[in-house]
Structures are given as structure tokens and as C-alpha cells.
Amino acid sequence: MRKKLLGVLLCTAMVATMLTGCGPDSGSNGSSSNKSETKKVEVSDGGKVLNIRVWNEEFKSRVTDHYPGYEKVSETEGKIGDVTVKWTITPSDDNAYQNALDEALLKQDDAAADEKIDMFLVEADYALKYVDTDYTVDIVKDLGVSEDALSNQYKYTQDIVTDSNGALKGSSWQGCPAGMIYRRDIAKKVFGTDDPDKIQEQFKDWDAFKAASKKLKDAGYQTTATVNDTYRVFSNNVTSKWVEDNKINVDANIKTWVELSKEMVDNKETTTNELWSPEWSTGFMMDSNVFCYFGPAWFIDFSMGYTDGKPMKGSVVEKGGWALTVGPQSFYWGGTWICGANGTDNKSLVKDIIETMTANEDVLKDIVKKDSDYANHSALMDSLKNDKSFGDAALGGQNPIPIFADGIGKIDLSNTTSYDQTCTEEFQAAMKDYFDGNTADYDTAVQTFIDKVKTKHPEIEG
Fold it and tell me: How confident is the model at residue 310 (pLDDT cuts 50, 70, 90)?
């Protein structure tokens, strides 16, 4: 049953680079070097190797920097007590991570003990693909993770990894409310101030956003690096699903994004460059003319101008030149969940890593303070909202927690489906042709999108 179900999912696997969770396959910002002082208890079920599957360096850096007792051996190997930790990192480009993970999971029953997957990570856009299979274990009933320990987590972070039978199949250390991240120097030149509250007035809704974009264009600046920078703001505020009654559906809010994007492209206020492309990334540099991006905490301190864990020379981050405000609408972007793999011979260690990294308040506070991540712990984040000692260097010392904390309560995942990644990527690709004038009209572009999705998911009727 297990192999059959994942085999079906393999046939309909979502293709192309992931645009969620924790960004591209780059390193962390390197701001943390000392582990939490939390005492580590040795936990082992006799398994000699703990195999962890990830798509980038982010979670590895969190464990390396914050999990008490972890000893780094090499870039792909570590030790926890007598257990060897092996990291298998497969970039998510062209769906490579999911394809490699799926192949390994299909062989899980027959794999040698030291080669079995013990833990793997999933992102919001495809979490459901794994949650509703028995390749993932119930972290409470099967692993013994304490429900009390998880009681401060934001509800939406648990909802997305709860299967149809109510089993909790994963846990995350981060919440991903997001906002508008803008250049302080450009704000001063165009709007006369870089104060987040005053800039918020300039971008308080989409009509205001359009007016502000015209001001930026007249002053020689682009509002965003690409139309796709605003996409998640719209897609995470939809009122219907991509697939309903087994048919493809384009939500009214997605249509509004198309209208806004077409207008901005025609006005040369943005571009149609791909997210994560070199052209898109140039906006992270001081010599660019891009005013803003949209993203959560991980995006700011993991993606915006970092290389080898350090700010790039000449980047806005290096100057602490960004600031954060809400923007036209609250939204979220991504998130990363730790799943325990069925068949692990290191249940106690998997349990301890999940509890320590996603529920231990001391460890999570250390992550917030040193990595500027937004922790999945409501009581902790509420306590830090007015903490004047905390500020993000990338944001010129601004404390972003009040803005993120206000937005996290608005996150609604009720319209999430297992088709979201495919639909998002194919819709953006089809609309790019429309925006660039390579497709005659919107309706033609939509039909191209539908045809592409049905090719990958033939079970969808239309």
C-alpha cells in the first residue's frame, strides 16, 4: 500500500524549482557559532547512523549551531554521541530533491540499517504529498514527542502536517509570516523618509501600492525585481483552492495579481525575471535600482545577498540598508517541517532532535537571537516583541518581530492542496509569456497553464 501510494505520487510529482520554504540552496548567514547551553541527554536506540535528507544548508546549520552535543566532522557528516549523522543534500532545482527522496523511500523497507532514512524535511507546497502516507510517522504516538512541549506552536504549523486521521506527521522550528522589505536609501529619496510606519502609509493597500510604484518609476526605480515578488501575497490570501471538484480553478485573487503584474510590466515598474535567477538577485546589491522584495524572516537573513554564510560585498545587507513593513496585505511564505521516517532505527534521537529544535524555548530563543529566524513558539515571540536588545542587522537594527507577530495570526492554510507547487510554477510560467507579449491574451495563457498541469496530473478532469 505504501509503495503503491508513493508510486502514484511519483508519477504526478511536482516539477521545477521550489519557490517556498527556506529559499534557494544557499548557506545560512553564519551569525551563530555557539550552541545553546541546554544540557544534552544522550539518546540512542542502537542505530549507528542517522540519515537526514535536506535540500539546502539551512536546517543543517541550525542543528550544527544549536543542537547540544552535535559535533561537526565534515560538511556532510557529524556525530551525536556514538551516532554518526549523515546529511544528504539534494538541491530542489528541477524537483531533484523530491525525486531523490521518493526513490529512497520506495527502497526504505529493503535498505540496510545504516542506509535507511531517519529524518527528512518537507516544505509547505508539497507537505501533504508525504503527510498522508505511512512513510512519515506520527511524531507524538510513534516517536513520543510531548504534546505539552508542542503546545506553544502556532496552530497553522501543525495543521499543515496533520494527516486525514489526525496524526501529527512533522514539526517546524519556524513560523513564516512575511512583509514588505524595502531599501531605506531609496525610500528617503522618493518618499522623504525610511520610517516603517510612514512607508506603510505609502503602501497600505494595492491602490496605494500602484500610486507609490508610479512615484518610484518617475524617480528612476523599479518597485520590485519581478512580478513574482508579489505573487505570494496574493496566492496566500485566496478564498478557494487550485483544484476543486477535480477541476482546475483560478482564484479571483490570482486574477488580480495578473492584472496588477501586467500593468506594472507595461509601465516598466518591474520585470518578468525568474525568482532566484541571477537577474532577480541583482536587486540585493547597492548598485541596483530595485526598491523592495516580499518575504519572511528566513528570506531576509538567508537569501538576500548572502554567500558562504556572509553578506556579499556591495550588498544592501552589508550596509544594513533594508527595513520592514507590512505592505498592502499580510501573508506568509513557506516553512520547513521535520518528518520522522518510517523504518528509522533511531527513534529516540529523532524524537529528541524534533523536541529540542522545534519546542525547546532556550534553543529557539538562541536561534532567534543569533539567526534572526522567527521561532514557532508563540509565548517566546510575544515576549520578544518589545525587546529593545533585539534587532536585525540586515534591517539596520529594526526589530521585525512586532510586524511578523501581527501577521502570523492571519495565516490560513485551509485552501492548501497537494497540487499547489505544480499549479504555482505552471501558472507563473504561462503568465510570463502573457506579460512578455509572447501569448496573445490571458485566456490563451490560462489554457496553456491548464494543459501543462493536466499533463503532470492526468487525474484532473480539466
Answer: confident
pLDDT band at 93 (very low <50, low <70, confident <90, very high): confident
Is the torsion defined by CA of 26, 333, 337, 301 positive or negative? positive
Which ranges of 111-251 does DSSP label H, i.e. alpha helix? Answer: 127-131, 155-159, 184-191, 196-202, 206-218, 231-235
Place of cell 502609509: 201
Per-residue DSSP letter, 91 = -
355, 145 Cβ separation under 8 angstroms: yes
Q: Average of pLDDT values for 14-43?
A: 44
The secondary structure element, H or E, covering residue 244 is: strand 243-244
**Distance between CA 424 and CA 205 in Å, rounded?**
23
**Which of 252, 342, 296, 275 shows the shortest CA–CA distance to 157?**
296
- Cα angle for residues 60, 299, 274 (degrees, 5° grid): 110
Question: 320 near 393, Cβ under 8 Å?
Answer: yes
pTM, two decimal places: 0.87
Report d(CA 86, CA 407) in Å as an integer: 36
DSSP 5-74: HHHHHHHT---S---STT-SS--------S---PPPPP--SS-SEEEEEESSSHHHHHHHHHSTTEEEEE
Q: What whole-number distance in Å separates Cα of residue 100 and Cα of residue 251?
A: 32
- What span, in angstroms and rounded, lies between the C-alpha atoms of 189 and 178? 25
Q: All 3 cell numbers of residue 286? A: 547597492
CA angle 36, 161, 177 (to 5 degrees): 65
The model's pLDDT over 226-278, given as tens digits with 9 standing for 90+, comes to 999 999 999 999 999 999 999 999 999 999 999 999 999 999 999 999 999 99
Inform me whether the pLDDT recorded for 309 exceeds 80. no
Residues in the chain: 462
pLDDT tens for each residue of 143-161? 999 999 999 999 999 999 9
Cell of 39: 544540557
Q: What backbone phi and psi angles, to 5 degrees, belong to 155?
A: -60, -40
